[in-house]
Design a protein that fits this description.
Elements: H1 10-14, H2 17-23, E1 28-32, E2 37-39, E3 47-51, E4 55-61, E5 67-73, H3 81-84, E6 93-98, E7 100-106, H4 107-116, H5 118-144, H6 147-162, E8 166-167, H7 171-178, H8 182-194, E9 198-201, E10 204-207, H9 210-216, H10 220-245
Antiparallel strand pairs: 1-7, 2-6, 3-7, 4-5, 4-6, 8-10, 9-10
Helix pairs in contact: 4-5, 5-10, 6-9, 7-8
């Protein structure tokens, strides 16, 4: 069915009325399930996803079947921004980490619209660059910061990206995502629970005290939030300039 829930995705919400109306007839609503593979390494990118309340992860495949998350994409952005803008995307896979709803559009349709609209193309490039910056930050975080700080940062970022306090995650999944052993994650999660920051059960983690987690998180969390705010302000400034010109 057609998707008219524009306000639930930050990228779609940021578009001018004209640009959104060009896309609207081709937007479809999809329910994405946890673990669903949206893109494999080397596959052509046929669809672009605009999360409403789900979280997608870009995954880099390593040797011996191991993989590592290099970026998260949620309701503030889209999966496939640089490819849609005509710039080669990073060669990585993409999977659904937190299930939920997303708007979906055919890559060809979005690319054609971007070729006709300078404003849309610029916003796609900005969002694509923001994902690359987020990826660089995540790689640095994994190599420099302890498990406690990485887990707190990831949980807060996931909360921001899906708009929910309850995250459908197992401790094993959290360990895979942040690159830590299951036992280490279990110890840290138990500590956070004792501190009143989270509670967890079978298959979920619920954030109770975001402020407490923020105190435990590494500086990467504040950096990522600042980068997103800078992106939002750049987009708003771009539209104001276009309105003055017109």
């Amino acid at each position: 069915m057609d998707s008219n829930a524009r306000s639930q995705n930050g990228f779609l919400k940021s578009l001018s009325t004209d640009d959104f109306e060009v896309l609207r007839p081709d937007l479809q609503t999809a329910m994405l399930s946890q673990g669903q593979v949206l893109q494999n390494l080397g596959d052509p990118i046929d669809q672009v996803y605009f999360p409403h309340d789900c979280v997608l992860s870009r995954i880099l495949e390593l040797d011996a079947g191991h993989s590592v998350e290099i970026a998260m994409i949620g309701r503030d952005s889209l999966l496939g921004a640089l490819a849609a803008a005509g710039i080669p995307a990073a060669k990585s896979g993409a999977v659904v980490v937190l299930p939920g709803v997303a708007s979906v559009i055919d890559m060809g349709r979005l690319r054609a619209a971007a070729e006709r609209s300078t404003g849309l193309n610029k916003i796609l490039v900005r969002h694509g660059q923001a994902v690359l910056v987020r990826a660089q930050q995540a790689v640095g975080c994994k190599s420099l910061h302890p498990v406690e700080a990485r887990l707190a940062r990831w949980l807060l970022e996931a909360r921001d990206l899906c708009g929910k306090n309850r995250l459908m995650l197992t401790q094993e999944m959290m360990g895979q995502i942040i690159g830590a052993r299951h036992n280490s994650v279990a110890i840290v999660a138990h500590t956070f629970e004792q501190q009143g920051c989270i509670t967890f059960g079978r298959g979920y983690v619920e954030i109770i005290d975001p402020g407490g987690l923020a105190e435990a998180a590494c500086t990467c969390y504040a950096t990522i939030k600042a980068q997103h705010e800078s992106l939002r302000q750049d987009v708003e400034h771009s539209f104001k300039c276009r309105e003055i010109i017109h």
